[in-house]
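Reproducibility note. Readers wishing to regenerate the assembly model reported in the main text can use the exact inputs given here. Chain order matters: entities are listed in the order in which they were concatenated for prediction.
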Amino acid sequence: MSTVRLLVGTRKGAFVLTSDGKREKWDVSGPHFAGWELYHLKGSPPDPKRIYASQTSGWFGQIIQRSDDGGKTWFQPGTPPGETTGPGGAPRGESNKFVYDTSAETGAPLTTHQFYDGSQHPWEFKRVWHLEPSLNDPDTVYAGVEDAALFRSTNGGRTWEELSGLRGHGTGPKWQPGAGGMCLHSILLDPKTAGRIFIAISAAGAFRSDDAGKTWKPINKGLKSQYIPDPEAEVGHCVHHITQPRSQPELLYMQKHWDVMRSDNAGESWTEVSGNLPTDFGFVIDVHAHEPETIYVVPIKSDGEHFPLEGKLRVYRSKTGGNEWEELTRGLPQSDCYVNVLRDAMSVDSLDKCGVYFGTTGGQVYGSADAGDTWKPIVRDLPAVLSVEAQTLP
Amino acid sequence: MIRVVLPPHLRGLARIKGEVTLDVQGTVTVLSVLDALEATYPMLEGTIRDHSTRQRRPFLRFFACAEDLSHEPLDAPLPEAVVNGKEPLLIVGAIAGG
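Running the prediction on these inputs yields the following structure tokens for the assembly.
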């Protein structure tokens, strides 16, 4: 029977939740890296035991961790598993080093972005928000960072290089931080078109590369944001998350600051599909593993009130690719619930009856083994959940 | 030997318990102590001072002999009590939270 493994990043460590294909009983391991913020963990598709983790701290900076045994043991890449410290066996700090490309050939001339007060501000690395392992090479992994940029490692996370064409393509001085910082939070590697990558930045928008990250173009046509001077500007939109069905990767879905959007042409244009949602503010959006037109969001009241409407935690599902939404409430708290669900905190498994999972800032991880019809809390009292990733294991 | 006390997060990261003792060559300064510390525990590179700027991280402080040395030049000699091992150099995380 298949196994499902959930990789849960929280404000105070990482947790690994494991169940068989029934997804009724779960084993919980953790906290791993207790006391540290774990922004994101994700497994390698061709080698699911290989997991990359972003361990970070406002005090101590960025650490990259890797497991080669499904999350049982961890090490900083460059250090063989089991070795600790000292000459000959010492981990190399290079795996934690994210340095923007400032070379004249590839990194210049872009060195500033727009700051909160409208002035230009130099790029300063703060943390890794999202790790996206390659679809076919366990040693290749992408990192989306704050201040927004895309890095890539081709040696299992031992060293990182910026794909500076993104930052340097021309609109960078117009990018600006949202309340959470100027972060590159979404990375989609196209499973059908070689070299095609989608990313999204808050607050800049979505971008696409068709040459493996060398050059980029903004793909924000159709987005409208009232909080920027030109609501239909090429960049400046606060995109919260993007996702795509693996079987139909030219189809994209987006949860913007306000508005739920879809694109049927790989981001060339976007259409609003908020439809009958009670509010179209939110952070997460995800798509069913087998039904490209079935999508999930968790509406949040507003940008000033980051909790569900009326204290009722409701997932909304559309089976029509948007516009027509149904509320999913069975098993979710329907009174006095004032948690948030952050942008990387929803995921799906790929079992026949698609499992859907999300974590809250109140420390609950909810799971549905029937595509959202019913829900159960898997754990209730973790630290605030930053990210959830599901792995489906044979 | 120079004694260094790290905050708990960094002791966990370096997989050590208690104080660190380091053999520091030449003049004992915060800079030379950090160089020796990172040479012995490379996983700490970037955690006390920024990878790129090599500057102290904003929420960390250097204390010794009841003095805050955080704003002293990194190459200033440390107190004799640190040099002869009577007192440790404390690397301290700022208090925050609720």
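We highlight two features of this model. The CA atoms of residues 22 and 40 of chain B lie 8 Å apart. The helical segments of chain B are 8-14, 30-40, 80-83.
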